[in-house]
Q: What sequence folds into this?
């Protein structure tokens, strides 16, 4: 279950994805399989080849891209989430969700 994100933020993420941009959406997350994880960042892009290349460039296996809806995305959690948010200069995500 996702929460802590506005409709505007979600729509902006979808717009960027649809336009072929690499888009980031961080939100609170509750998943029984990962009780220690409180947030997740969805890295999306409807240009699947661009998203695959982004994953490979960041040491992530493109085989784990979620394709089950119209917005392909890769889920970042844990230390890799923090590492990539820092590398992408998304300080606002880190501060808002207290990931520092």
A:
């Amino acid at each position: 279950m996702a929460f802590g994100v506005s409709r505007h933020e979600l729509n902006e993420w979808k717009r960027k994805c649809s336009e072929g941009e690499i888009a980031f959406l961080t939100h609170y997350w509750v998943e029984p399989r990962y009780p220690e994880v409180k947030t997740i960042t969805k890295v999306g892009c409807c240009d699947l080849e661009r998203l695959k290349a982004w994953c490979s460039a960041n040491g992530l296996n493109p085989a784990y891209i979620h394709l089950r809806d119209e917005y392909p995305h890769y889920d970042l959690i844990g230390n890799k989430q923090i590492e990539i948010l820092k590398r992408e200069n998304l300080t606002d995500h880190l501060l808002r969700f207290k990931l520092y």
Observations:
- The CA atoms of residues 28 and 95 lie 13 Å apart.
- The beta strands are 2-3, 23-29, 39-44, 73-76.
- The first strand starts at residue 2 and ends at 3.
- The chain has a mean pLDDT of 95.
